[in-house]
């Protein structure tokens, strides 16, 4: 599918799902998705996307006390934009906890978004009332990561697959049964599997049933949340091939949520990369894999195992921890881990050394630097009591902790770092933090980069592709709410 970037795989409207729609009650039947795509075309441009998301935001309030006073917010999704066209598969990728699944449930209004626009077939989903929302959910279905947890163990497979038909008004039991058996066969199962229970099926078979349940009401959009992450590799290939086949047959738009870039490369036309609630890069799949423009994307691609002994050791190691989404860092949210973070003017560092300096700064800024732990580690290594360590040995231990050399190659930078080390040895952590922040500020920690076009032709949110900007006066301040 990756070759069909412009969207528009052929649609076959003769499948079991359309049989289901034709027999639903008037409320559902009048909402048929057999609409000519030209109805949504801009006379001066291409066909409008099936799904258009703008500034989608989902925050979870943090409360405390008997009155549940809000004291903060977890910024799970923080203003993302993307589109899905008819017949196209768009991948939404990133590490666990980056907000991918929350974005999916928010755009479908399984959870109410905090802010933003979600336009589906030209209509604003966030303004739907209960009846309109029910009709929308027939046109937009979700396939969940763990099908076992989404099935009622007391219901047969046939009953589970038929449940959406019941919800959307189909009262003819015989017709429901015929449609269910047909869609089960369409996803590679036997019609007789309708009489079995979830515990009798393998993981791959359950995922096929989950896909069948999503297709049975003939949706225009399928949101697949990690549909193969819990399956063996051989079964993954079967499910991905099945997803490709049914998309071609029904002309579906698919939003694929995944952390597995190998899966994304196999099935997606375009990819959006998420980090800590934001999209940091978006591109056609081939472009993203051949010429990634964001350091985070390069790190993700470097983590893909390659059966090539000549390319071993090419992975990008990310230092530090993923920041807390309730208190994301100012500037570029990736700067606390970025191996390519921009250096300050006036100094010359090796990039790996500069990353070590930034790791020290981040630790000091977060308040998680513990000099007692550093002293005890050094004392254990030297076989002496911590109280007997010299100031020079403690300073050296701090450098070892952050992979910093005994002396920086730049004399001016070394003076700054030595002053900060002296302050740390004396227990003056705040003084050390201020000294490093004053001299080693970077634009990456003060200015949030926009998602703009790059020389590669697609968009990324990174200062490496923009004009240099002054770091500013307060790089250690948190992001304002």
From TrEMBL:
Keywords: ATP-binding, Nucleotide-binding, Transport. Residues 1-48, 451-481 are annotated as: Disordered. GO terms for molecular function: ATP binding. InterPro entries: AAA+_ATPase, ABC_transp_ATP-bind, ABC_transporter-like_ATP-bd, ABC_transporter-like_CS, Oligopep_ABC_C, P-loop_NTPase. Residues 1-17 have a biased composition (Gly residues). PANTHER family: D,D-DIPEPTIDE TRANSPORT ATP-BINDING PROTEIN DDPF-RELATED, TRANSPORT ATP-BINDING PROTEIN. This is ABC transporter ATP-binding protein. It comes from Halobium salinum. The lineage of its organism: Archaea, Methanobacteriati, Methanobacteriota, Stenosarchaea group, Halobacteria.
């Amino acid at each position: 599918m990756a070759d069909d970037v412009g969207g528009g795989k052929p649609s076959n409207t003769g499948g079991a799902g359309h049989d289901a729609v034709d027999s639903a009650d008037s409320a559902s039947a009048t909402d048929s998705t057999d609409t000519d795509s030209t109805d949504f075309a801009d006379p001066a441009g291409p066909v409008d996307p099936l799904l258009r998301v703008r500034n989608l935001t989902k925050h979870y309030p943090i409360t405390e006390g008997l009155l549940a006073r809000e004291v903060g917010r977890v910024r799970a999704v923080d203003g993302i934009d993307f589109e899905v066209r008819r017949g196209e598969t768009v991948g939404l990728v990133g590490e666990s906890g980056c907000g991918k699944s929350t974005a999916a449930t928010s755009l479908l209004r399984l959870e109410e978004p905090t802010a933003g626009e979600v336009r589906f077939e030209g209509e604003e989903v966030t303004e739907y009332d209960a009846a309109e929302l029910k009709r929308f959910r027939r046109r937009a279905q979700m396939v969940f990561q763990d099908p076992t947890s989404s099935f009622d163990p007391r219901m047969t497979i046939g009953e589970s697959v038929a449940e959406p038909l019941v919800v959307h008004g189909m009262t003819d039991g015989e017709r429901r049964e015929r449609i269910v058996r047909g869609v089960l066969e369409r996803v590679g199962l036997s019609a007789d599997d309708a009489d079995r229970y979830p515990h009798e099926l393998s993981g791959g078979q359950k995922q096929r049933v989950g896909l069948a349940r999503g297709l049975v009401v003939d949706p225009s959009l399928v949101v697949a949340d990690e549909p193969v992450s819990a399956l063996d590799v051989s079964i993954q290939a079967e499910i991905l091939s099945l997803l490709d086949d049914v998309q071609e047959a029904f002309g579906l738009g698919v939003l694929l949520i995944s952390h597995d870039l190998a899966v994304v490369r196999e099935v997606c036309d375009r990819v959006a990369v998420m980090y800590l609630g934001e999209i940091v890069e978006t591109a056609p799949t081939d472009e993203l894999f051949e010429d990634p423009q964001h350091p985070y994307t390069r790190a993700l691609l470097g983590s893909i195992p390659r059966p090539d002994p000549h390319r071993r050791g090419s992975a990008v190691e990310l230092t530090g921890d993923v920041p807390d989404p309730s208190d994301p860092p100012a500037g570029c949210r990736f700067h606390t881990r970025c191996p390519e973070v921009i250096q300050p003017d006036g100094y010359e560092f090796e990039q790996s050394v500069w990353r070590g300096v930034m790791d020290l700064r981040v630790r000091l800024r977060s308040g998680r630097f513990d000099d007692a732990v550093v002293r005890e580690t050094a004392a254990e290594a030297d076989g002496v009591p911590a109280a007997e360590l010299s100031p020079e040995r403690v300073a050296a231990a701090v450098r070892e902790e952050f992979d910093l050399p005994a002396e920086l190659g730049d004399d001016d930078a070394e003076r700054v770092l030595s002053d900060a080390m002296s302050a740390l040895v004396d227990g003056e952590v705040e003084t050390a933090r201020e000294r490093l922040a004053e001299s080693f500020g970077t634009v990456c920690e003060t200015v949030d980069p926009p998602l703009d076009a790059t020389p590669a032709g697609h968009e990324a949110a990174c200062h490496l592709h923009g004009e240099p900007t002054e770091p500013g006066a307060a790089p250690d301040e948190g992001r304002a709410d």
